[in-house]
Amino acid sequence: MILSEKVNPLLEGHHGGAELAKYENGVAYIKMTGACSGCPSAQYTVEDIIRSIVLQEIPELDDIILDMSVSRELIDMAKKILSGEIEIRK
User: Fold this and answer.
1) Virtual CA dihedral for 50, 14, 21, 2, nearest 10 degrees?
2) What predicted TM-score, i.e. pTM, was given to this entire model?
3) In a domain, 88, yes or no
4) Would you state the pLDDT for residue 21?
5) CA 59 vs CA 4, 21, 50, 70, 72: distances in Å
């Protein structure tokens, strides 16, 4: 709710967003989406913007961390491209 109402409107101008990937032991892991997922500044966005907004709303959280794991969907797509199952057009 906080991400969709307070964070994502800020990131929409960059054609991206943020979503909760998981919550574990007081730590929220945030996954960047859209254009923000591949942005070299994603770590700074989480540290400087998202962390302050979320911790202001939920001060009992211990930390907010960028989840940089690769999605299963992206891995499957890469396998299809490498196997020739999907053709990349130039």
Assistant:
1) 50
2) 0.74
3) no
4) 93
5) 18, 19, 13, 29, 32
